[in-house]
Structure formats: C-alpha cells, structure tokens
Amino acid sequence: MVINVSTQDFEQKVLGSDKPVLVDFWAPWCGPCKMVAPILEALEQDMGDQLSVAKVNVDDNQQLAGRFGLRSIPTLMLFDTGALVAQQAGALTRAQLDGWLNRHMNLDTAG
Where in the numbering of this chain does the Thioredoxin domain appear (predicted)? Predict the structure, then answer.
C-alpha cells in the first residue's frame, strides 16, 4: 500500500525504513502528478516486498518541499538507508520508472 507521509513522520517512515523508499512529491492540482499516481500504485503492488512507495503532498508539507529544494512536481526521490540515492523531476511511464529504478537500485525485477 502506498503510504502518505508528512513533515511530522518523514524521518520515521522514509529515512528510518528498513527497505528503500520511493517518495512522490505531488499536489492535487498537478495534472502530471495524477498521471503518475496509478503507475506508482502498480509499482508498489508489484515490488512492495523490495520497495516502499510514499506520497508527500507539497501543499500540506511545504517545509519538506523546501528542505529538498523542489522546483517542480511531480518529483520522485529514492531513499535507501536514510540517504537520498536518486531524484527525478517530471512524469514517467512505467517502463521509464522501471529503468530509472534499475539504474539506481539492485532490484530483482525478474520476480
């Protein structure tokens, strides 16, 4: 299940996670964000044992958006053991997202 993360629980749910976390910084008014949402849901269903997917509403969590210097949404950030591993701005197709994750993680996508 995709989890919603706020400024208050970001440290615990993302940085403290025992598996990699893909964070989607989004807003309800953002068209490309709406396009990415079902792709992220499917990704979490397919790879939830290897990767957590989290969503941060930038309208409700402006402090987090500022902390990471976001300039556009959607922005995807991949965290592993509390460290930012990769960042991607803009909407991606599932194939593009899979390729991006494979470049930055050691995931078993054959499963």
Answer: 1-106
Q: Determine whether 95 is an active site residue.
A: no
For residue 111, pLDDT beyond 60: no
Q: How far apart are CA 65 and CA 104, in angstroms?
A: 22
pTM score, whole prediction: 0.92
Q: Tell me which of 5, 21, 22, 33 is the catalytic residue.
A: 33
The pair phi, psi for residue 4, each rounded to 5°, is -90, 135
Architecture of the domain delimited by 3-104: 3-Layer(aba) Sandwich (3.40)
Domain boundaries, the chain: 3-104
Whether 106 is catalytic is no
Dump pLDDT digits (tens) for 39-81. Answer: 999 999 999 899 999 999 999 999 999 999 999 999 999 999 9
Q: Which of 30, 54, 73, 91 is catalytic?
A: 30
